[in-house]
Amino acid sequence: xKKLKRSARLVEMTQxxxxxxxxxxxxxxxxxxxxxxxxxxxxxxxxxxxxxxDEGLGELQTHAGAAGGVKYTPKxxxxxxxxxxxDVCRQLEQPERVLPGGYLYMTDMLGQPGLxxxxxxMFATAFASSDIDVIMTVETKGIPLAYATAACMNxxxxxxxxxxxxxxxxxxxxxxxxxxxxxxxTMSLARRALREQSRVLIIDDFMKAGGxxxxxxxxxxxxxxxxAGVGVFVESAEVGTEERLLEDYVSLANLTEVxxxxxxxxxxxxxxxx
Length: 274
Fold this sequence. Notes:
Layout: H1 6-18, H2 27-34, H3 38-54, E1 58-63, E2 69-74, H4 78-92, E3 98-99, E4 103-104, H5 113-126, E5 134-138, H6 143-153, E6 157-160, E7 171-177, E8 184-190, E9 199-207, H7 211-221, E10 226-236, E11 250-259, E12 264-269
Parallel strand pairs: 5-6, 5-9, 9-10, 10-11
Antiparallel strand pairs: 1-2, 3-4, 7-8, 11-12
Helix pairs in contact: 2-3, 5-6
């Protein structure tokens, strides 16, 4: 590209990093791209690193050596994340969102790109130190959350289907017991969708007893894969701990109380906030 003034180069370099998270970019690549000396590029990166950290946008890590460079890791500081989730909790407490069975209507919120981007950064922050190969979710409402998280972590997404699709070829199917209503249901995953021995981060929109997530974990066993983490947007505390099938997970919001008669709910930030 053409040689840019430093101010323009800083803007373009920042955009370049933001759209390539978890990607190691060498100083040589930047020097060639902007037709600038490596010393100038290093100074620019120091400025960007300071702004990212001061504004809570993430970390810019430097890797030394011939094969080194810089890598951008999206993160969100606790105060910023808490403010966003507190607003989410207020919206979810609207009486008209209460559905039969103690569920909440969240589809409209899961269609907001800005909120999805924020949630993706929160999950990326929670699992930044985990060794993960792929993001997994089950259709359908968990899909936008999974893709938002994957965008921040620069990872592929695998979608578990309720029914096997002929367009996906041979698949592994299992039966699992839904933790909330104890019904036996089926889920399947195409054999080509996931490499064996992958490390998988499971993302879901809502968890009561955790039956669906446990089903995905059982499905991963058939692929000799490892569950590297579990993240849920909203968990329900209406289910007792003795009924909960999972112990190790990260939640962003916690539905602590539902009164079906008055349509009143109480929602607080999840265990991500300690």
